[in-house]
Amino acid sequence: MTTAGPIDVGLAATDAGLRLIVAECFGVEVPTFQGEGPSCGHPALFIRLSRCNLTCTKCDTKYTWDRSQFDLRKESTKRTVADLVAWATSSPVKLVVITGGEPLLQQTRLVPLVRQLLAAGKRVEFETNGTLAPVPELVADGVRFNVSPKIASFGVDEAKSIVTAALEAFVASGRAAFKFVASSVADLDRIAELADAHQLAPVWVMPEGTTADAITEATRVLADAVAARHWHFTTRLHVLAFADARGR
Question: Is 207 helix (H, G, I), strand (E, B) or coil?
Fold first, then answer.
């Protein structure tokens, strides 16, 4: 996949009025960090989009998709591209993380948002489950993809969560890191199978857990085996620092 061309400065009126289904935005009023992956610890702004194409039982943001537990009309709002750009550019923080849910469900409407964020000097990271290939316009300088394929132990059918064509597109982009949630050495064996089969690199492993104790326990279970495979290891900083509080 090739890099997109130069980013246009300014939004067309039709683009400015495009609306995205947003669960929450945070990091401006109360500062926070990217809690996971290659940019762990970097100051960050978050735009969390609503809706997902998977139904993982261990998901920690079910308010973005699980209609059986949440009223999605109350858990989300429609916000214009212009509104989101104004919100993000009100902060000096450079990193904007677009997450979900699954943000690439709305990727055609994200193109003008990302263009304007880049034009304003921001850099953008997508947190994605890796089931949807990015449109070429998003594969641009200043954009990275933290691709988190979900394995069966996360409570999902891998026939739905492992999509070869999408993973190939992320590999070809040259702008992706592959971040897996794990809680056991058996999970690492499965991750190795997927990494080998799809040529995924670099591989990051993140311990499963939504409490500091669970993160610590999983870290100690996994650390030696991750190091032996020469993979990257990331914690979940927002859980350790803010007790997994929503909007942090």
Answer: strand
153 touches 187 (CB < 8 A): yes
Instruction: Give me the domain span that covers residue 128.
Output: 13-52+61-242
pLDDT, tens digit (0-9, with 9 covering 90-100), for 59-83? 999 999 999 999 999 999 999 999 9
166 in Cβ contact with 148 (< 8 Å):
no
pTM above 0.90, yes or no: yes
- Asked if 144 and 117 touch (Cβ cutoff 8 Å), the reply is no
Q: CA-to-CA distance for 94 and 51, rounded, in angstroms? A: 26
* Residue 41 belongs to domain with CATH number: 3.20.20.70
Q: Residue 219 corresponds to which tokens in the numbers above?
A: 């870290």
For residue 197, is pLDDT > 50?
yes
Q: Average pLDDT in the 85-107 region?
A: 98
Rounded distance between C-alpha atoms, residue 68 and residue 109, angstroms:
27
Helices (H) and strands (E) in the chain, counts: 9, 10
Ramachandran area for residue 97 (φ above 0: left; ψ -120 to 50: alpha; else beta): beta
**Is residue 7 one of the residues assigned to a domain?**
no
